[in-house]
Amino acid sequence: xxxxxxxxDRTLARTxxxxxxxGLDPRTRIIAAAxxxxxxxxxxxxxxxxxALGLALALxxxxxxxxxxTLKRMAMMDGFIIVMLVTLPVTTPGTLLAxxxxxxxxxxxxxxxxxxxxxxxNAVILALMVLVGTMDAVxxxxxxxxxxxxxxxxxLLLFTVRYIEVLRAEYRRAxxxxxxxxFRPRSxxxxxxxxxxxxxxxxxxxxxxxxxxxQAMKCRGFTGQIPLLDDLRWxxxxxxxxxxxxxxxxxxxxxxxxxxxxx
Amino acid sequence: MHIVxxxxxxxxxxxxxxxxxxxxxLGLRQMTMERIPAAGVLSAAFFVASLIHVPIGPxxxxxxxxxxxxxxxxxxxxxxLFVGLLLQVxxxxxxxxxxxxxxxxxxAMPAVLVGLIFGPxxxxxxxxxxxxxxxxxxxxxxxxxxxxxxxxxxSGAQFxxxxxxxxxxxxxxxxxxxxxxxxxxxxxxxxxxDLFRAMEGAA
Lengths: 263, 203
Fold this sequence. Notes:
The structure holds two protein chains of two kinds.
Chain A: H1 7-15, H2 26-42, H3 46-63, H4 67-80, H5 82-91, E1 96-99, E2 105-107, H6 108-131, H7 137-146, H8 151-180, H9 189-219, H10 236-262
Antiparallel strand pairs in A: 1-2
Helix pairs in contact in A: 2-6, 2-10, 3-6, 4-6, 5-6, 7-8
Chain B: H1 10-30, H2 36-49, E1 53-56, E2 59-62, H3 66-73, H4 77-92, H5 100-123, H6 128-155, H7 160-169, H8 171-191
Helix pairs in contact in B: 1-4, 1-5, 2-4, 3-5, 3-6, 4-5, 5-6, 6-7, 6-8
């Protein structure tokens, strides 16, 4: 799935196969990431959150992901929330920290809240990419099914994963054909209508493709159940990692409680 | 318009998760065996469409097209858009994990509403279909920004300016998504009107 982004990632996913975290059962990695997310979101003291981010960073070398690329992707997420990060120090009431132009006032509480959100958002995303994002998308589907996700949802996920690449290739072909006819996307009605027609055509072709897929599947005796071929098995390393990770999360929670009480 | 982890208050996160789970369950009930391939391939198509960037003025935005998704998929837009968000957060690092429910609801609920309101007009066909598709496409984005603003506002008054900025920044996006959806619907009703009945018919 990481290959969706660029060719460079394709090699990235290949090298990742030898990384230590890859030896863990996919279910262990999903549960670990989910537990981490819940604990981190519950944390509110900055030192504990900083340690949580450090914990996610500590896993990065064992994931086999290229650190620079992964951290850049994490920083891209910060771009999404830039509006919030910029406005919060000014809009949160509290003790004065600094006078800004235009009569705005930055507060200590606002800055704290900004840091809290930035730290927890980054820590959770990083842990998720390191633990789950290194997984093959099909493996992720199977692991979710084994963890009790509704089968129809898993089927939908499998189909989506399977056909994203196919439809992306179709999209690229259409764009190439448009480029060959000297189409250059600009900020005007013609461009938007052309891209709209492209999207419409993409959907029409997707539906027609799905009709052929259904016929082909029926021909092979599809009854609404895709067999999940895998042999997921818990191993000793899963237990070891689970205990270690759990201890870290417990320690973080206890530390948070003492910090909050002290404050 | 993704919300990230740690920004929202716990009641908002939990309410969002419960509401999204309900919507997904309703959508999955519609997805019988015969419709799984159509729902899956269309969900992939909307995922690919969301990677398209279109220029607006000096900048560019990526498409969301949740209005179109609701018109085509109905309630199945809930699981389809959830799958897209799940893949985005896990493999691209966009959005957040605990807020998956809120994000799903904010994008899929407007989709379903638009599908329910404008679906009948579009299935009737004719030259007006594109117009309704365009209005639906713009309305879905408007509703999504309102939902995002609401989720932020409920989490704290200090988020209000950020929420207002998000809404203002998305007004051009509403216009572009509306025009794009109009063109897409206009083409699809002429080429393959069945697209808007993909989740109907033989179960």
